[in-house]
Design a protein that fits this description.
This protein is mainly α. Helices cover 60% and strands 0% of the residues.
Length: 152
């Protein structure tokens, strides 16, 4: 019984090696981040249980998901920021295929700037003592809220 299992395992290893030799996967050109994203997208197209075409529809979904993931509460980005990002909404697929990530870099840069501004607001607010007995309310925003008109 044990030898039969070993033969089966050996046969699988040989078969896997043969398939890898016949169908080699060449890595895409580019820097490390470019290779990782392109390989991930290629794998998603081929082996995902619900393969998606990497097209403008995919770009729009990725755009919305990414912005909601970074700022789902609509607390950091402003309408002006979203207007700057909007031209890239249908270009993410093209950027991924070409190995450039201008949209993601642009969003990341603005996000880091907004976090720095937010940190200064928190430092200012935390410099004063809190009185939790005043009975004030706090209103949180959600994904269905509009983006803030400005930073204030």
């Amino acid at each position: 019984m044990k030898t039969r299992g070993l033969y089966f395992l050996f046969a699988l290893v040989i078969l896997g090696s043969l398939v890898a030799a016949v169908f080699p996967e060449t890595p895409p050109p580019g820097n490390k981040e470019s290779v990782i994203i392109q390989t991930m997208m290629r794998t998603m197209q081929r082996y995902h249980f619900q393969p998606m075409d990497i097209d403008d529809d995919f770009s729009a979904k990725a755009y919305d998901y990414y912005l909601n993931d970074l700022d789902g509460g609509r607390l950091l980005f402003t309408q002006e920021d979203i207007a700057k990002f909007a031209p890239s909404k249908y270009q993410i697929d093209d950027q991924v295929n070409s190995g450039t990530y201008d949209f993601f870099d642009q969003v990341q840069e603005v996000w880091i700037d907004r976090l720095d501004v937010t940190e200064s607001y928190f430092q200012e607010a935390l410099a004063k003592p809190f009185d939790l007995n005043k009975g004030k309310e706090i209103k949180l925003r959600d994904e269905d809220a509009e983006w803030a008109k400005n930073e204030k």
